């Protein structure tokens, strides 16, 4: 998902700036470029430190001493905050039939209190002393090591908060994002200045939609709309690309960060990864790693490419910006339809019609470029080899979730595609891919937002088959989360599809507890299927699994 450590950023960036004379990693005068930075006593002290250690290997104890003298401990920009709108017994709990699951849902509801954070006043008054980006309202953080707000995580957090009847907290979080759009023209990946050039999957419009559905607050909608349109313009101006397929030109979107430098928060990792490459290749790799971070899938074999146009290779072959992702374009299609509906609600028929046309053009582009009639799903498109990537990812069904297709049979074909994909044979969720690359957005990890989009999409389809599958996947996911909770008394950011409650692993950092989006997705599924879900101690009716078992068996013959 994301990787940031405020403290290690400071130290590593300093090390790098001083010792390798590379250009600065961002625009902040203090943290990266400016005269104050250059002259600052911290830098002088750091020079002293390096001079004292000839091989530029500062002993850890000396570095630690330097850090504790000149930098605050990580996390000091935030103080704990108990959301004042938290209260016992939100209504949705009453809709959960299974007693054990209801108790557990109540515990998840309690977790919001431990994930609330408020910025200390210093961040507003002395922004130059902090890498944290100021935002005016308290937030629910994802949990674990993440000491700042994150963008796409917050969509599922907000959906969970709305079920917990915490509309003020949800409102404040959305206000923060609107504030960030007004300040930067888009939403940074997370609340740190080293994220100022990259975003994350664009879910703000859908957050506002969730809030509007819960409150019917038209004035809020009216006030939010200009920022939502501004964010949309950012994606269209800075992240779109024209592609010609069968003689027709289409415009679709990609993740693309034009900063050819290592990620400040993972500086040495990126430096080492690029060792031995030409300068041009280095810059390209660093841009594509940042685009990978922007995609939210950092990192994954999904963004690897080889010259034949397969998703083959290693982290060094990450080529995110060459790829038009099915899910990003589905989210933007849904944003376009949602913006049209907002304008309609507010009585601006002309603007509504404009966004409807945009959505129609997007739908056509998605069908021409990403849809594969033979396989019956939507696939990422490689701009360099002009071919689709046919590996399995849950994102191949994102247009079902966004309801962005022209004919109902396309979605039904996609259900058959899913059943034939071998992605349903795991007891604890649908994996992120079928390739075990060691990266965290790959097999065997399953991530809450991907489960939710898949289940939500299937549950909206008219066929009984799709609805049954949606419920079956919800049951597996709830069971996985519940089993892990009974073992560890914790909610994790991701799970292992084979572990019966084992947390996920891999990637750049240890699995994290908390956890905002996990809690949000669990609450949403418990709300949607509260009457039918059972806890891990009872079994799902085997009849439900039979069609799946059959489809797997047949495929293997
Ligand atoms: C750096 O070292 C010099 C000589 O030891 C000392 O006078 C100076 O105070 C040091 N500067 C800092 C900022 O630590
Ligand atoms: C510096 O590195 C060289 C080669 O690795 C080593 O032989 C030498 O002892 C080191 N010097 C110090 C002061 O650590
Ligand atoms: C978006 O593109 C515009 C125009 O090319 C540019 O000025 C702006 O800096 C870009 N914004 C970001 C965040 O990259
Ligand atoms: C991926 O690369 C490996 C090793 O180079 C090769 O054996 C395999 O056939 C490739 N797979 C595809 C789909 O190209």
TrEMBL record:
<dbReference type="InterPro" id="IPR001661">
    <property type="entry name" value="Glyco_hydro_37"/>
</dbReference>
<dbReference type="InterPro" id="IPR008928">
    <property type="entry name" value="6-hairpin_glycosidase_sf"/>
</dbReference>
<feature type="signal peptide">
    <location>
        <begin position="1"/>
        <end position="28"/>
    </location>
</feature>
<dbReference type="GO" id="GO:0004555">
    <property type="term" value="F:alpha,alpha-trehalase activity"/>
</dbReference>
<dbReference type="InterPro" id="IPR012341">
    <property type="entry name" value="6hp_glycosidase-like_sf"/>
</dbReference>
<keyword id="KW-0378">Hydrolase</keyword>
<dbReference type="Pfam" id="PF01204">
    <property type="entry name" value="Trehalase"/>
</dbReference>
<comment type="similarity">
    <text>Belongs to the glycosyl hydrolase 37 family.</text>
</comment>
<protein>
    <recommendedName>
        <fullName>Trehalase</fullName>
        <ecNumber>3.2.1.28</ecNumber>
    </recommendedName>
</protein>
<dbReference type="InterPro" id="IPR018232">
    <property type="entry name" value="Glyco_hydro_37_CS"/>
</dbReference>
<dbReference type="GO" id="GO:0005993">
    <property type="term" value="P:trehalose catabolic process"/>
</dbReference>
<keyword id="KW-0732">Signal</keyword>
<keyword id="KW-0326">Glycosidase</keyword>
């Amino acid at each position: 998902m994301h990787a940031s450590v405020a403290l290690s950023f400071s130290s590593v960036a300093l090390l790098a700036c001083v010792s390798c004379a590379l250009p600065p990693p961002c625009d902040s005068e203090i943290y990266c470029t400016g005269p104050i930075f250059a002259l600052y006593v911290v830098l002088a002290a750091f020079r002293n430190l390096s001079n004292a250690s000839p091989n530029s290997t500062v002993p850890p104890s000396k570095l630690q001493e330097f850090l504790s003298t000149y930098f605050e401990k990580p996390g000091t920009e935030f103080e704990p905050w108990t959301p004042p709108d938290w209260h016992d017994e939100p209504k949705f709990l009453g809709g959960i039939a299974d007693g054990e699951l209801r108790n557990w849902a109540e515990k998840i509801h309690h977790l919001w209190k431990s994930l609330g954070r408020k910025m200390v006043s210093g961040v507003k008054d002395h922004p130059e002393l902090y890498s944290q980006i100021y935002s005016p309202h308290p937030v629910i953080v994802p949990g674990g090591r993440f000491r700042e707000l994150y963008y796409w995580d917050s969509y599922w957090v907000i959906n969970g908060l709305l079920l917990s009847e915490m509309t003020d907290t949800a409102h404040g979080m959305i206000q923060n994002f609107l504030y960030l759009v007004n300040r930067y023209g888009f939403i940074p990946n997370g609340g740190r200045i080293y994220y100022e050039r990259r975003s994350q999957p664009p879910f703000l419009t859908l957050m506002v939609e969730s809030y509007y559905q819960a409150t019917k607050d038209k004035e809020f909608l009216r006030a939010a709309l200009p920022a939502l349109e501004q964010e949309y313009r950012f994606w269209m101006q800075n992240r779109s690309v024209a592609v010609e397929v069968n003689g027709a030109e289409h415009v679709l979107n990609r993740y693309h960060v034009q900063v050819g430098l290592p990620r400040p928060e993972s500086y040495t990792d990126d430096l080492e990864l690029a060792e031995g490459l030409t300068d041009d290749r280095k810059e390209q790799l660093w841009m594509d790693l940042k685009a990978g971070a922007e995609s939210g899938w950092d990192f994954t074999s999904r963004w690897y490419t080889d010259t034949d146009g397969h998703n083959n290779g290693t982290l060094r072959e990450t080529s995110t910006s060459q790829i038009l992702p099915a899910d990003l374009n589905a989210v933007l299609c849904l944003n376009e339809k949602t913006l049209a509906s907002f304008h309609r609600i507010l009585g601006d028929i002309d603007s509504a019609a404009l966004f409807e046309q945009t959505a129609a053009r997007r739908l056509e582009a998605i069908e021409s470029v990403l849809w594969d009639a033979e396989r019956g799903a939507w696939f990422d498109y490689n701009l360099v080899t002009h071919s689709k990537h046919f590996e399995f990812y849950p994102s191949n069904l994102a247009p079902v979730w966004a309801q962005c297709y022209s004919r109902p049979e396309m979605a039904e074909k996609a259900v058959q595609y899913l059943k034939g994909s071998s992605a349903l044979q795991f007891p604890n969720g649908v994996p992120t891919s079928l390739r075990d690359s060691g990266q965290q957005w790959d097999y065997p990890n399953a991530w809450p937002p991907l489960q939710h989009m898949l289940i939500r999409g299937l549950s909206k389809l008219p066929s009984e088959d799709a609805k049954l599958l949606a419920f079956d996947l919800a049951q597996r996911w709830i069971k996985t989360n519940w089993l892990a909770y009974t073992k560890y008394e914790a909610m994790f950011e991701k799970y292992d599809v084979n572990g019966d409650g084992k947390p996920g692993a891999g990637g750049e950092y240890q699995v994290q507890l908390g956890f905002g989006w996990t809690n949000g997705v669990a609450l949403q599924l418990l709300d949607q299927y509260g009457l039918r879900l059972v806890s891990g101690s009872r079994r799902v009716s085997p009849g439900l699994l039979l069609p799946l078992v059959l489809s797997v068996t047949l495929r293997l013959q």
